[in-house]
Amino acid sequence: MSEIKRAEVALLRCEDYEDRKLDAIIAQAAEIAGFPDVRGATVLLKPNVLNASPAAKAVTTHPAFVGAVMRFVKAQGAKEVLVGDSPGWQPGTLAAKACGIYDSVQQHGGMWVDFKEATPFPIANGKKLKHIPLTTALKDADIVVNLPKLKNHRLMTYTGAMKNLFGLIPGTAKSAMHLQYPNVADFGQMLVDLALSVPRCFTFMDGIVAMQGEGPGSGTPYPLGIVIASQRVAMLDWVAARCVGYDPWRIPYVLDGMQRTVGNESFAEPATYPLTVAEIGHEGFELLPYGSSKVGRRLVSIPNSLRTLAGSIIRLRPIFHTKPCIGCGACIEICPAEALSIERKHRSNLVRIDDGLCITCFCCHEVCPAGAITVGRAPLRLVHSKMRNVSPRGKGPRP
Ligand code: SF4
Ligand code: SF4
């Protein structure tokens, strides 16, 4: 039998979610990238369960992919398999049921965990963080197996392994981090602080069907046909971003992650096996523009009225479309800046935005289940004082 070659990043072809094929690919990827010994261990699987979307939309990690990794870790001798996530505004169980992950967990004898409770975890050598509240499920786990979906991301350009670990922060505490770090560069450094501090972490990425266009919640599926695995989250992200046509040198948090991982500002491209990045076709994959570190920066040095005007003209911002809006209130609930309100008029839902408060984190865009929010340079929205007193779902002023 020929010896399997080891590489920092395993990059393999996998065209669909057929169980037997997945089992073989996951085992091969694990061997190439050096999956750790999990005999007798409690393993926490962290898929991307962004919201309650069917698997075919490619918003979440595919349930068959989660199932294959469960079979693999059990075959490796894991004692217990926990699977969990925390969508920004919906209950995790609801979202996991909608995408099929909950059923897959039950079928494979695992335990679904809603990340609700948090406990502070220390961050070693963080640029932004010293501690961060993460799910208490981490305390029960000997190892985290990170299962991201390869997607575009409106705020961060690309999302994958490092960003998926941001979901270890329970519930709306995630959007509070946007408020704390409204500048994209700062937010990205915080993400890297967190991702590089998760102890004993191995990643299998679902790039079989990726998300192009308006990711992470409103893009369209793209049959990319790959699985990527690594012990190094930043290296995996570097390779994944390249596989769909991005230049990761222009994605600040991916670059920061790589530089911190290798301990150097300049570095060689991570070695992949058995495929090279050049062998991955991504024709027609709809990329997003590279972000700017200025996106999300509050314009603090000018009066509020001018800030509103400048913000509307210069900045990319969320644009709310009345026709597809179903009035669910998710955008309002998730908004860390309390910049949104909703008015119901003639059976239509009119979401209004206060441009002076908006920090352009695009959390609203991320969670909208109806594709009713796009991102662009919209005409001026005049926000008057009355608007600030309209609370979510018109129930009176915000406390
Ligand atoms: S309106 Fe949307 S983009 Fe603006 S702060 Fe709120 S969630 Fe973020
Ligand atoms: S814009 Fe989207 S998230 Fe906001 S209320 Fe309408 S459907 Fe819900």
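^ iron/sulfur cluster complex. The mean pLDDT is 89. The radius of gyration is 21 Å.
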